[in-house]
Design goal:
This protein has 50 residues and is an all-alpha fold. The protein has three helices and no strands. The chain has one domain (7-49). The protein has helices at residues 7-13, 16-38, 44-49. The radius of gyration is 19 Å and the shape is elongated. The N and C termini lie far apart (56 Å).
């Protein structure tokens, strides 16, 4: 059987302000990973020679 979500938890999950904050936070995390040099699958030798 599935577990029911409380009204308080459902309100928190559907809150548009909280959804926007989570969206911005996820975008920042992705940008930090890509800008940190971990977003590419090619080797550094390929990047230098091109």
């Amino acid at each position: 059987m599935t577990q029911r979500i409380s009204k308080r938890k459902r309100f928190w999950m559907q809150n548009p302000v909280w959804q926007f904050i989570k969206f911005i936070w996820l975008g920042l995390k992705v940008m930090l990973i890509v800008a940190g040099g971990h977003g590419s699958t090619r080797s550094k030798e390929y990047q230098k020679s091109y």
